[in-house]
């Protein structure tokens, strides 16, 4: 008995072994680039800096980079959870400066109040954002933009239009920003601990899986039984808490609640998250990539400082360029995945 299809060649839509193998290989390569691209660039830029700038090689300089990256790392950590759901939080810059002012003001009552007050207020604003976004289905951009303006207004009211600067009065709280352990700043240890916790939450808990599902497709997530509203509220509360904590840590480092900080912090956080490989549309990304993104921006800023005659604003130019390149690359990689 003859087999009719024995000599028929595979068509373009064939799912034979070779076609499946090529598709799997393409998916693996695309996934690897998306996950580890920022780390590869970070290593490359760091090696260039080590070769070109002698002062970059010192341990003191490495410590400076890590300490400077700690507050942005906390903000970007919260932003990662938000963007993974397909949302955005523009209020974190204002919450950062508000948290610093509140921490410095509350430090007169001791260490505990210096931490709890900014966390309670900034977490409350994050809760407000989450409730509005979850229950009214308003665009996160609009809701968090309103919160940005509101938080900035609260900060100015507390500080008498910025004319009053509160000084940190608790030595124990000041140690959080100026102390060190094993030669590494306390705020670096704190950021590292929270990053590790964030990785575990995202990869090993139901909440983390809900975050990814919500970013992939909100409708599908709802059909699968994901608590969509609760997850949305949770990520915005987390973002608010981490932004307030970052501000408190910065106030402890500076010794006062500086009112002129925070402008553009939300954009830096978004840039670090996206450069780290998290899709702006949500559903794919990692905290490890965000860490690489934050450190990459920190290394670039340090290199600009090493040059000496370059304005620090060039860091924003470079960050914007990186962001544009990464977004284009993500679009191309996603199209390659769909084609294969």
UniProtKB/TrEMBL annotation:
Any GO MF annotation of the entry: transmembrane transporter activity
Say if the entry is tagged with keyword Membrane.
yes
Listed A to Z, the keywords are:
Cell membrane, Membrane, Transmembrane, Transmembrane helix
Would you tell me the protein name for this molecule? Monosaccharide ABC transporter membrane protein (CUT2 family)
Source organism of the structure: Actinoplanes italicus
Spans traversing the lipid bilayer: 38-56, 62-83, 90-106, 112-134, 141-159, 179-202, 233-252, 287-304
Q: Please provide, in alphabetical order, the Gene Ontology terms of the cellular component aspect for this entry.
A: plasma membrane
Q: Which domain of life is it from?
A: Bacteria
Does the entry feature the keyword Cell membrane, yes or no? yes
Q: Name one Pfam family in it.
A: BPD_transp_2
Q: How does it sit in the membrane?
A: Multi-pass membrane protein
Query: Where in or outside the cell?
Result: Cell membrane
Record region (Disordered) = 1-23
CDD domains linked: TM_PBP1_transp_AraH_like
Xref: InterPro entries: ABC_transp_permease (IPR001851)
């Amino acid at each position: 008995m003859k087999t009719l299809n024995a000599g028929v060649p595979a068509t373009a839509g064939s799912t034979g072994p070779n076609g499946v193998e090529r598709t799997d290989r393409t998916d693996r390569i695309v996934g690897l680039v998306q996950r580890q691209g920022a780390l590869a660039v970070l290593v490359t830029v760091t090696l260039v800096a080590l070769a070109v700038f002698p002062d970059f090689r010192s341990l003191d300089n490495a410590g400076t980079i890590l300490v400077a990256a700690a507050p942005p790392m906390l903000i970007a950590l919260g932003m990662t959870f938000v963007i993974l759901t397909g949302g955005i939080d523009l209020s974190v810059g204002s919450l950062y400066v508000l948290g610093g002012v509140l921490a410095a003001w509350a430090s007169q009552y001791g260490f505990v109040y210096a931490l709890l007050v900014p966390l309670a207020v900034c977490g409350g604003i994050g809760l407000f954002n989450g409730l509005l976004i979850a229950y009214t289905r308003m665009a996160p951009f609009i809701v968090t933009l309103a919160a940005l303006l509101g938080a900035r207004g609260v900060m100015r009211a507390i500080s008498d239009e910025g004319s009053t600067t509160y000084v940190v009065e608790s030595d124990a709280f000041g140690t959080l920003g100026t102390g060190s352990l094993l030669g590494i700043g306390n705020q670096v240890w704190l950021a590292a601990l929270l990053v590790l916790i964030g990785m575990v939450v995202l990869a090993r808990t139901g909440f983390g899986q809900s975050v990814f599902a919500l970013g992939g497709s909100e409708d599908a997530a709802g059909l699968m039984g994901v608590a969509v509203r609760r997850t949305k509220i949770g990520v915005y509360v987390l973002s608010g808490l981490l932004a307030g904590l970052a501000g408190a840590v910065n106030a402890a480092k500076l010794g006062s609640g500086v009112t002129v900080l925070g402008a553009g912090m939300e954009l830096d956080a978004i840039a670090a998250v996206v450069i780290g490989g998290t899709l702006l549309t949500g559903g794919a990304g990692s905290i490890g990539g965000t860490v690489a993104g934050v450190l990459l921006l920190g290394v670039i800023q340090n290199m600009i400082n090493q040059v000496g005659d370059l304005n620090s604003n060039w860091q924003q130019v470079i960050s914007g360029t990186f962001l544009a390149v990464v977004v284009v690359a993500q679009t191309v990689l996603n199209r390659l995945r769909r084609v294969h």
